[in-house]
Every structure is written in structure tokens, then in C-alpha cells.
Fold these 2 entries.
Entry 1:
Amino acid sequence: WGQNGHRIVGQIAQGHLTADTKTALLPLLEGESLAQISTWADEMRSNPNTFWQKNSSRWHYINATSEQGHFSHSHDNSEHKETVSNILEGMHFAINTLKNPKSTIDAKRFSLRFLVHLVGDSHQPFHAGRAEDRGGNRIKVSFFGQPTNLHTLWDSKLIENENLSFTEFAQFIDTDNTQLIAEYLASSPQQWLLESHNLATQLYKLETDEISYSYIYEHTPVVKTRLQQAGIRLAGLLNKIFDSSATPL
Ligand code: ADE
Ligand code: ZN
Ligand code: ZN
């Protein structure tokens, strides 16, 4: 997602943290909110001559193979940041670092920043798209006559078209529905990516490359559901890591 998508996910998650989780996060957040730290992982990529500029772009996505449900990842080989080669390994790495009592505070701080970002990206359908078109980046479309691509349409155009601040957007799509929340939480990072992959498979079948009202009307609800799921699931993950007494809701 673009900046607003990530901030919306962070903002929704913030409202679903338990008191104990909030307390545990204080030293890691250093006065910032989950929305504020959510875009750090993208900002780091433009920091010249750093590990992150050279190595982290692959942390943001995964390309599925033709076989449904199987991603080309080497599973829990993600103990060191140097070995992370896709978003699933990135999430595992960040979760493991946050759980490990031996991790330094700096390692925990950047793992939290990455986790908030990557849970968001794992819900963007085209972050689990096809390798050959770079997750839709190479598929040209127009948005109300302006040239863009399918990936950017989903990262930001459909969100920006709503003309809401991230706090307004988060408020509009947040939910207290305990049934829905329980459903969202009963899934793993691998399943979130499979959901994204299945959505992308449908979304690659474009009826027209001229995107306007009818496409927006049909697909903005999907964007909203994915951002809502990401926010709830991020909170669920953080509560599980930081609050041993947290109930699943
Ligand atoms: N960004 C760059 N390459 C990508 C890919 N293959 N899938 C998704 N996002 C990408
Ligand atoms: Zn993207
Ligand atoms: Zn990203």
C-alpha cells in the first residue's frame, strides 16, 4: 500500500490493542503511534548505501507459484535479516525477534516497524501476485484518463479516491463485530497471503484497462475489507506477542 493504506492499518490496530500490549509497546514506539511507524519500511528503502536500500525491497511481497497455496519461500530460515527473501519470511523474522527475550531493544524497534508495515502489505492483493509482471507493476491501466499501473491502482489510487484522511478512513471501516473479528483472527500470515493471491488471480482478469466509476464501485469494498482485516490481524498478532493473558478477541 501507499502511505495512507499503511497508516489506516496502524490506526485500526491501535484501537484493538489490550492495555498490557500498549504498555509493552511504549518503549518500542518512543512516543509514536502505530500509524506513524507504519511507513518507515518504505522510507528506509530510499536511504542511500544502507543495508535496507540494497536488501529490503523483497521483504514487501511474495510471488506465488502456479500451484495454489504454495509460495516460493524457504520457510523458517528467517532468523537473520540477511536471509529474508520475501514478505512471509519478513513477518516471521519480525515476530521471532519481538518474541525473543535476547533481542536488543533496537532489533525490537525495527522489527515492530517492519511488522506493522508487512501485515499491511500482505493484505494488498498484488503483493502476492505474479512475478512476470512484477505484481501488476508492468500492467498499464488508466485511472480517469491518467496513466498508471494495476499495482499502483491498488496501492494508492483506490484509497486516495475516497478523499478521506487516514483517521477518518480508519474510523469508517473499523469494526466492533466480535464474530467478524474472531473470523479474521482465526488465520495465519500464510493464509493472508493466499487470500491476497486468490484476489489477485481474479483482479488480473481486467475487462478494460480504462479504470473509472464502475471499477471503483465494484472494488473499493474489497480494499476496505483488506485494510480492516490487516488492522484487526495486526492487533491480534501484537496482543499475542505482548499480552500473554489476552483473549482471542
Ligand atoms: N514490487 C516489485 N516487484 C514486485 C513483485 N514481483 N510483486 C509485487 N510487488 C513488487
Ligand atoms: Zn505495493
Ligand atoms: Zn511496502
Note: The domain at 3-242 is CATH 1.10.575.10 (P1 Nuclease).
Entry 2:
Amino acid sequence: MQLSKAAELCYEITNSYLQIHQESQIIASTQEAIRLTRKYLLNEIFVRWSPLNGEISFSYNGGKDCQVLLLLYLSCLWEYFFIKAQNSQFDFEFQSFPMQRLPTVFIDQEETFPTLENFVLETSERYCLSLYESQRQSETAVNMADAFREFIKIYPDTAAIVIGIRHTDPYGETLEPIQRTDSNWPDFMRLQPLLHWDLTNIWSFLLYSNEPICGLYGKGFTSVGGVNNSLPNPYLKKDSSDIPLRFEWEISHAFGSNAAGEHDSIVNTSPISVVDKERFSEYQDDYYPGWYLIDDAVERAGRIKN
Ligand code: ATP
């Protein structure tokens, strides 16, 4: 796919979600969340930094939050181009999308699940990302600030980086949508237009999008770090009590399903790598998929503190 096509697809997905008329509190609040993110991107970010000349990079690690933000970012990128093209003196059909790939940074921090690594590579192709991958150190986990310092050295035009952090993430509570990095970090603007999203918003939009999502979420993970500090979420363990699925409508009416809303009701998860299959063999089907969890307070309960 070309970047222009990927951006147009994301625009169509987003528009389609915004047009859903359902008596669902989750969908209504997600539509509100999308509108605010779009406002940040189109009215506050793209007017200060051009998304088309390398000033903005996107931080991406294949996680659900940055994937949601990537879909919205590409959607706004399409809209930004479309509006510019319409205002131009030349006919729209003679305008070509001015970017081939989206500048993206992935800090390969620690030993990563091959399923996630494969997913990052596959989606880099799908969304036309120009992926900078930091060098992983053999023994110790990479220091994030140092890794970004290295990135800025190689891409000195970078003025701002888009980050899919939310208020409910650790240290996320007091963050602002646009803010400068702390003094012990390399100097750039942090663009954080997803802060106000909660877990239900993330699952609702992502499942509706019908885009492939990282297979680890299908195995009970709700937040993914390195292999040594991430497990399926214990709150999703299948025991005596059933956990209800809150996103049945989104899954069965996912983007691209037919007009009657008929869809095979299968979530589009990426394949689990052979190594991870082995790793998970003990507890293969013992957990509900990640999207059964809607409580932000326990989203990271599967993360082991080092
Ligand atoms: P999940 O919580 O399910 O793992 P996520 O990885 O998108 O989803 P966080 O782990 O909360 O979310 O990280 C917040 C954001 O920080 C990401 O969305 C991404 O923009 C950025 N980020 C985190 N880790 C990395 C990394 N290793 N490389 C690049 N960006 C990262």
C-alpha cells in the first residue's frame, strides 16, 4: 500500500466510526475522544509543525495505544493534504501526496516478543512507516532518553514526536497534549493527543477498525513490554466466573463488513510466532483475550516490576 492509500483508508475508518448511531455509551464517548484528538492534531499540531516535511516523527512500538493514534494521525494527515489540495490552484487529480513514508521511531528496549517484533515490521509495511529501530544493548535495558538522543542526532530535523501515552498510564496523569521534554531528555516537543482516552475507547475503536492488531492481545495480554516483564493479565484468567464481552457490536459490524452487519466476528489478530507459541504452551487458552478487560486501573496487572 502507498502512504496516501493507507492515510485514506484510515480516514474512511475514522469517518465510518464517527457516523455510528448506536445507543452505546462507550461508542458515544469514543466518538467524543476521536473529535478531541482530531482537534489537537488538525487545529493545534499541524498548524505549528508540518506533518509533511520531517519535523514530526511518530513513536511506535506496535502497542494498541500507538496503533489507535497512528490510525487517527494518518486519517488527519489525509484530511490535511486533502484540504490543502482543494485550496490549491491546481485540480485535485493533479496533486500527488507529498510523502512516501511516515518517519517513525521504535526503541527496541529489551528482549521483545517475536510476535510483537513481527507485528511492528508487518505494520510498518502496511502503514508505510519509515522505521528507525534503535540498537538493543545485549545485557541492560536501553535508556529511553539516550535512545531518543541518538535518534535526534540522526534525524536533526525532528522538532516534535507523537506519543500514544494516556492519562491512566504510569506518570501520565499530569501530562499535557503538547509539551516540551524534561531537562534530562533531548530537546523536542512531545505531542500527546491521546491522553484523554480510556481503555474502553481504545478497544472500541481498534476492534471496529478491523485492522490487524498484535496477536499477543488475543492471548490475554493487555499491555505489552519485554518478554521478561510481561504476562497475560491475571484479571483475564478463565475461572469460574464469566467475563462479558463489551464490544460485540464493534466486532460484528467492523469496518468493511457488509451492509447487513454480517461479519465473521473474528478479531483480526496477527499470528503468534513459533517461539512465543512455545513460551505460551503452558497457559495457551487459559485467558480471555485482552479486549475483555475494560478497567484502566488493572490494565498493567500483567506487567512484572523489575
Ligand atoms: P500497550 O500499553 O498495550 O503496550 P502502547 O505500547 O501503545 O500499548 P504504552 O506502553 O503505554 O502504550 O506506551 C505509550 C506510548 O509511548 C506508545 O503508544 C508509544 O507512542 C510510546 N512508546 C512506548 N514504548 C515505546 C518504544 N519502545 N518505542 C517507541 N515508542 C514507544
Note: Residues 3-191 form a domain with the Rossmann fold fold (CATH 3.40.50.620).
